[in-house]
Structures are given as structure tokens and as C-alpha cells.
Design a protein that fits this description.
Elements: H1 11-16, H2 24-38, E1 44-45, H3 46-57, H4 65-75, E2 78-84, E3 87-92, H5 94-105
Antiparallel strand pairs: 1-3, 2-3
């Protein structure tokens, strides 16, 4: 199934198109990509992703999504761009964007 981010009206519609066995990494990257693409925001706190995107998609709350974000940063998919209060702000990189888009096209 091919998904075009620009054709998706809501996060819930997009999230429901992910495979049921999608990893927390794929879910995080999809949420970051959607956040960047559709909501015109270039950075987000992990708390925002967990409380908003994971909750709205009715995905189980990950044990440690911050560790997943650090893993994605190690892969070059996310970049830390600052802090908001005590929370890291993350930005999806071009490599991360292209990686998740490629996965969604082949899903």
C-alpha cells in the first residue's frame, strides 16, 4: 500500500495505515514525519509525540520512547535541536524523512 502524506487528512487515518506489527521506532518516525509534514512544525518533544500521536492512534505507550529517539538519532534519522524546559527537542532529518517515506511506500 502506498501512502502519500499530503493526501492524508488526519493523523488517525495515517496511523491506521501502518502495519499492526510496526515497531516503536517506525511509529515514532511516522509521527515525527507527520508532525513535520502536516503540522508544519520542525521540532517536537517526545512527550508531545507520546501524549498526542500515540494516544490518538490508540497505540500502547512505549516503555522508553526517549531511548528510541536516541536510537533514531544514532541512525541519523533525528537530530536534537535544543531543549524546552528539561525535555529535548527533536527534529526529523532528511535521511529520517526519506527512510520513513520509503518504508511507507513499501508497506
Amino acid at each position: 500500500m502506498s501512502i502519500e502524506f499530503t493526501n492524508v487528512l488526519t493523523w488517525e487515518e495515517f496511523a491506521s495505515s501502518l502495519p499492526k506489527n510496526a515497531t516503536d521506532t517506525d511509529k515514532l518516525m511516522a509521527a515525527m514525519c507527520f508532525h513535520f509534514e502536516t503540522e508544519n512544525s520542525d521540532s517536537a518533544e517526545i512527550r508531545t509525540i507520546t501524549n498526542n500521536y500515540f494516544r490518538r492512534a490508540r497505540w500502547s505507550r512505549p516503555v522508553n520512547l526517549s531511548a528510541t529517539a536516541n536510537y533514531c538519532a544514532g541512525k541519523g534519522w533525528l537530530s536534537e535541536v535544543g531543549k524546552s524546559n528539561t525535555q529535548k527537542l527533536w527534529k526529523i532529518t532528511k535521511r529520517g524523512y526519506e527512510t520513513i517515506k520509503a518504508k511507507m511506500i513499501h508497506a
